[in-house]
Amino acid sequence: MVLLSVAFVTVLERKILGYVQIRKGVSKVGFMGYFQSFSDAIKLFSKEMMKLNLFNYFIYYFSVYMNFFITSLIVVLFPYMGMLDYFNYGFLFFFCCLSLNVYSVILMGWSSNSKYSFIGCIRVVAQMISYEVSLMIFMLSLLFMLKSFSFYDFGKFQKSIWLVFMFFFLFIFLFIIFLIELNRIPYDFFEGESELISGFNIEYYSSNFILLFISEYMSIIYMSLFMSVMFCGSNLYFMGFYMKMMFFILIILVIR
């Protein structure tokens, strides 16, 4: 479900960028270009896998799969029927996944033995670690107020009033920190056309690049999920929750 969502989120982003620049965007493959992501995926998977001259073979490949696996683990926090009643440490699990993901980025930047990727990796890690501290402090202030680490309890607490009205400035701060954690524009410091090119992932291509790309867009979906749960709480089993989540995804895409 999440992987399919990633395909359409990428199309949505390209459509938004097209309309912002007063052009159509993707419109050739399938109905109104909605299947463009699938054709791009087939093209990337068919690319030849070449070996770099100087790189750490095992860590080079392992770090990509580690990054994808850790990001995919967060899917267990999605509001499946009956799941959240028993998973009482959802936010704690989320913190752990965020912290572990830093190690995969370090390994990716170091294992390819490229100066560009290593400098980009240092930038990303410094940015992620520094803002994770403030992210956890802000989130823990809400969690201690509710005396729970469960997503389900957040939904029940906000039946009468959403926390976005009570903690509006905290909402703004957390949203900015989430953008920084996602390494999205205007906080994409690991990239630089004139200095680092694409940063820590410059030496990745073909299927490895697809996994990195999917991980990035899955993170956008997850961050939108957390913002919806924490500040715009509703019944997690109804369509309204997903509409709010889609609203946050649109904001992240439009900011670019």
UniProtKB/TrEMBL annotation:
It is a multi-pass membrane protein. GO terms for biological process: aerobic respiration. Belongs to the complex I subunit 1 family. It is an enzyme of class 7 (translocase). The chain crosses the membrane at residues 58-80, 86-108, 129-149, 161-180, 209-230, 236-255. This is NADH-ubiquinone oxidoreductase chain 1. It is found in: Mitochondrion inner membrane. Its main location: mitochondrion. PROSITE patterns: COMPLEX1_ND1_1. Its EC number is 7.1.1.2. Keywords: Membrane, Mitochondrion, Mitochondrion inner membrane, NAD, Transmembrane, Transmembrane helix, Transport, Ubiquinone. Core subunit of the mitochondrial membrane respiratory chain NADH dehydrogenase (Complex I) that is believed to belong to the minimal assembly required for catalysis. Complex I functions in the transfer of electrons from NADH to the respiratory chain. The immediate electron acceptor for the enzyme is believed to be ubiquinone. It holds the Pfam family NADHdh. GO terms for molecular function: NADH dehydrogenase (ubiquinone) activity; NADH dehydrogenase activity. GO terms for cellular component: mitochondrial inner membrane. It catalyses: a ubiquinone + NADH + 5 H(+)(in) = a ubiquinol + NAD(+) + 4 H(+)(out).
